[in-house]
Amino acid sequence: MPGTSGRVTKARLQRLSGWFGGDVITAGSKGYDDARRVWNAMYDRRPALVLRPAGAADVATAIRFGREHDLAIAIKSGAHSAAGHSSIDDGLVIDLSLMRGVTVDPIARTARVNGGALLGEMDIAAQAYGLVCPVGVIGHTGVAGLTLGGGIGRLQRHYGLTIDSLRAVELVTADGRTVRATEADEPDLFWGLRGAGPNFGVATAFEFDLHPFGPLLHRGLAIYRGSQVRDVWAMVDEYGRAAPEAVALIMAIARAEPAEEYPPSVAGEPIVLVAYNHSGDAAAVEADTAPLRAGPEPVSLTSGSQPYLEVQTANDLAMGWGHRSWILGSYADDLRPDVLDALVDHVADAPTGASISASLQGSAMARF
Predict the structure, then answer these.
(1) Can you tell me the distance from the alpha carbon of 77 to that of 245, in angstroms, rounded to the nearest whole number?
(2) Residue 368: predicted pLDDT
(3) Which residues fall within 8 angstroms of residue 94, CB to CB, at 6 or more apart?
(4) What is the pLDDT of residues 88-147, one digit of tens each?
(5) pLDDT value at residue 365
(6) Where do runs of H (alpha helix) occur along 86-201?
(7) Burial (CB count <10 Å: 0-12, 13-18, 19+), residue 339
């Protein structure tokens, strides 16, 4: 069979189909090309087999089948792995997209989220009760991958990382056992899942604490010329050292394109953007962000309030499937003036869409 390297026979696949409750997709199946796609178009991999489980029992079956046939296994939830880990050549992809759904308990302020659920599902379910879990910024990202990677977004300085709100994980281990891990049950496994590394098992469900929030998020955006980068960074750096925990802040260096979306004075040129999200009381926004208006004169300045659910999906199309994305990151306490100048020079010549950003950390993220 093409792509299986002789390890999986047609007869074995037929037997698998007889007891597997989800979809069995091979290189010869209708829909194979859709099933192997991932968010980052840089990765065009061809797995030997894609299994879409309908539940935890199917996940266990898929893992056992992969082990019995010596197939390397990749897990696909939202398929947003920037490094392409959601698929694999010649191996087995366990695709959790049939296992979606979110259930919220508004009294306990908790959510149960299935392993294939997306951030948008979780946001909508929680906001129906005036609640939120701090998650990422693109609605079609998978909850599973984001959580097990830590989870950063617009609310983490206020409520911590996504993983800080995690109460429990249900997963299937490499030997096919179904395990529930919490701080009280399987505590070592629960600790490991929250940052010790990958491959502890396939997460089939999560439980999260939720926090009262919404429906409005208060926002501001200032645009500066690239030549102002040193002064802008000095302002951002000083502000960040004592910023209120309700304020999430990002400074980005990019090129003002498409030109029609920016003021004519900077269209097509390198720019510096400073954006904040304030998740606290509307009455506190002006005072909490005043230092950001006391720095260099921006080319443009906008501010206002917007429903959280609208903000969370605002970039879903721009960050849609099919783009080629190369993403790198690191931590820094400061940026030297010559580094700032070099970054501005870089975006001046880089392909359209290239940007460098620095996000404010700390606050609630540092307490957990």
Answers:
(1) 31
(2) 62
(3) 51, 53, 59, 62, 63, 66, 73, 74, 75, 76, 202
(4) 999 999 999 999 999 999 999 999 999 999 999 999 999 999 999 999 999 999 999 999
(5) 81
(6) 119-127, 143-148, 156-159, 187-193
(7) middle
Tokens 């129906």 identify what position?
128
Query: How far is 344 from 350, CA to CA, in rounded Å?
Result: 10
Write b or e for each residue in 283-316: b if 16 or more Cβ atoms lie within 10 A of its Cβ, otherwise e: eebeebbeebeebbebbeeebeeeebbebbbeee
How far apart are alpha carbons 168 and 148 in whole angstroms? Answer: 12
Query: Residue 3 has what pLDDT?
Result: 41
Given a cut of 70, the residues of the chain with pLDDT beneath it are: 1-7, 368
Alpha carbon distances (Å) from 36 to 84, 141, 172, 201: 11, 17, 22, 21
Mention every residue, 6+ apart, whose C-beta is less than 8 A from residue 40. Answer: 80, 81, 82, 84, 323, 324, 325
Q: What is the pTM of this model?
A: 0.91
Distance from C-alpha of 197 to C-alpha of 214, rounded to nearest angstrom: 33
| pLDDT on residue 288 | 96
Place of tokens 């604490």: 209
Q: Does residue 115 contact residue 72 with C-beta atoms inside 8 Å?
A: no
